[in-house]
Amino acid sequence: MLKLDDRDIRILSILSREGRVSKTELARRINLSPTPCWERLKRLEEAGVIEGYQARISLKSLGSHVAVFVVVELENHRAEAFQAFEKAVAGYEEITGCWALGGGYDYLMQVVARDIDSYQRLMDALLEKKAAMARYFTYVVTKEVKAPTGLPLGLLNVLAE
To answer: Taking 70 as the threshold, does the pLDDT of residue 25 lie above it?
Structure first.
């Protein structure tokens, strides 16, 4: 595990909120000259701490869509059922996130589709693929209240200890 200091943590905090900040601006904000800042950044990337950079896209500005959260229960809890479900999910780009859960349900999926009909076709396809789903529950997003905005500095400090 990579040992992180306060500057590394500030770099991660800034980048998790503002992935397009220039390297020069990043160096200025953490009070470090550009070359050592870039070396830190490269070390964090090579260690896999920084997995990538991406833009946050406003889907509503591009057109109509529906965002859905789906909780899934599998038919059983044998390894083959988990593997079948995870393999099936990997094949659909509309499934923008999927997390295995501890507790009552087995998975939580995030789906973005053009409309409800498109979403239902996706779910029907998963059922036809024998993805080991016993049942699923659909929760349509009606309003975004708070979107992911990056990792809080306090959490990064705790995790780095």
So the answer is: yes
